[in-house]
Amino acid sequence: MLNSNAELSSLSFTSASLNRAFERGVTTYSTVVPHQAQATSVTAAVYDSRSTVSAAVYDGNGTLKHGPVALTSGQASPELPLR
To answer: Which end of the chain is more exposed for a tag (fewer CB within 10 A), N or C?
Structure first.
C-alpha cells in the first residue's frame, strides 16, 4: 500500500537554520549555514511510519556535494559535511 501522508511533523538542524518557517506539507527546504560551519546534523520526523525521509548537501550553485542520506524519523543524522 502506498503511503498517503509523506509530510514532515518536524525538522531541525545543528549549525544551520531553515530558509523559511517549518510548515507541514512543504517537502523541500534549504538552510542558511554560517561560513565557519564544517558540518550539520538533520533531525526530521514524519507523520506516517511508512514514509521515508532523506537529506543532501548542495553548494550555492545547486551541485550535489553529499548524499542523499536516508534518515530515521525523529533521530539526528550523522554529521553531514558542508565542505
So the answer is: N
